[in-house]
Every structure is written in structure tokens, then in C-alpha cells.
Model the fold of this input.
Amino acid sequence: MTEAVLLVGGKGTRLQPLTLTTPKPMVPAAGVPFLAHQLARARAAGVRHVVLATSYLAEVFEPYFGDGSAHGLRLTYVTEDVPLGTGGAVRAAAGALASGPADPVLVLNGDILSGLDLGGLLHRHERAGADVTLYLTRAEDPRAFGLVPTGPGGRVLAFTEKPRRPEEFVTDQVNAGVYVFRREVMDTIPAGRPVSLERETFPGLLASGALLHGVVDTSYWLDLGRPASFVRASADLVRGVVRSPAVPGEPGEFLLLPGARVEAGARLGGGTVVGAGAHVAAGAEIEGSVVLDGARVGEGARIRASMVGRQARVGPRTLLDGAVIGDHAGVGADNELRDGARVWCGTTIPDAAIRFSAV
Done:
């Protein structure tokens, strides 16, 4: 039985206010929590048991996913009382695995959307006889990522986390946040303290002579750490740019969830999602955005590449372009919010109060 560990314990501070009351993997993308897409893709790759390594708002996961049977999986929940970092989380989750010492175990970061063939990665790991296999992608600007140069046959040569000096930019290959561990390697990670896979575990394994294998794949890849990326990921899932078995519908320019009401004359496109019980008034235009459950969009409002939280309100003729409106917030009529503007949960902005806001 193939097993996987999903790292879903982060606070998602870069996604606030979306993550003030919802852990990042549970924020909806293309109509379902983002975690549902990762679980569906893991199952499609042959995984049958997933350990969820939780911490922040850990109590939210199990009421939604239960024992995993509805998703064709067996789920186990392991909760960190204090955050243990990526490596510490893997070490804590390892105790819930049933795999033998030499068996492969998938490890996935909870905020990565990719088109990677997970089954193919498992196969290449076993063919290489690696201790750890890393999924790598190429980045035009790798400064925000960990650089991973490889040699002949894909053997990892070094790790440089978030390079700054010119001499550190030795490759455009970056750590893409999906790994395959030989099960017994997980037990070499120190227990009970914070450990970083990227800064401690992988460099330490390399120094000890372990075989770390890199697989470069240039298909779709997106880090969902920021609101703009999260909204783009949702739109790409809706349009079928990247496929997920968890999307509740066929690919198209928009997705309406049950109970959503869109009045005649409104226009939706670009992979927009309108959540359950949400209402979009006549004349509104929404492009490539997420309108969550119970939200209301007024007449003539224009929304592009933005997210509108649960039960939030966007007034008539208001413009949102690259903005995030928190749950239960209200933006009055004739406002204009652009370029990363964020409205905190429960906040109310009066009519015509803001003509331009950037953060």
C-alpha cells in the first residue's frame, strides 16, 4: 500500500485575511478546499493512506474529511502542539505509517498545485534506488526558493535555500515541494524539536553520503502562498489548465455552486467561482475571481483576479482588481480597491470611501 504525508500545519500568514479563521489548505479553490485537490491527485497515483500533519487550526480538518472513506482513502491526523517545521512534521507523522523500512512514502507540501505525475515520481524514485527523491522545477527568478543543482543521472549536488549572493545562483532548478522518502530515512530526522527539511535534513543527508535524486519536471507548478497565486490556481483548476478529479464540474469559464444566484445581465468568465448561496446582481462583471459562499455582489460591480470572502458584501459599481475581501466584510458602493488591497474580516468600508488602495 502506498502512503503519503501531507504537510498542512502552516499558519498561512501571507494569505491573511483568508486564513484568520481557516487553515490555508482548507481555503476553497475551484469549489472545494484546496486540500481536496491534493488528496484526489494522491489517490489517482495509487495512494491509499494519507497522514495529515496538522497544527494551526487543526480541529478544522477532521470534521470535513472524516476518516477519508468518502474520498477513497484512509486518513490519519497527527497534530503538533507546537510547530515543528517541515522536517519535524514529517518525523512526527512517520509514526502513523505502516510502510516497511525500504518502502517509498510521498511527502507533499500543503500549498503546491502542480501537474506532476505523482505515480511517475514514485516509479523514478524506485528505479534510482534513492534515499530521497525531490521534485524540481525551473524558475525564472529563483530568489524566493531553494536552488537544487543536479549532476549526471539526476543526483543532487547541493542545496542553497533562498540565495542572495551572485555566486549562489548556480542553477534555475528549484525545490518544488514534493518528495519521496525511503521510509527508514524519516526516522533519522530528530524527534520532538523544530527541523527544516530544506535547511537541515536535506543538506545533512547529502553530507552523510545519502543518495538524493532530483526529478526536473516543467509542467504546471504554482506556489499558493500569496492571494494572487491562490486566486489564479482556482481559476486554472476551473478552466482545466491543470486537472483535478475534485473539481465539481466540467472545465469552463465559470463554476456555480449549488444555490448560487446570478442575475440576467451579469457576466462571469476567466475561471470564476460563485459559491453556494452567493448572489451576483445584474450588470456585475467578474473575471478570474472567487466569490465564496453567501457573498453578495452589487449591480454594476467589477471584480477581477480577486477573492470575496464568505458572507461578504461588495456594493454597486465598486471595482476590485487584485483585492481580497475577508469573511463578513462589507465594501460599500463606488469604491475602488486594487493591487493587493486587503479588507479584514468583519470590516465595513462606507460608500465612495476609497478610490485607490494598494498594500
About this structure: The longest strand covers residues 173-182. The radius of gyration is 21 Å.
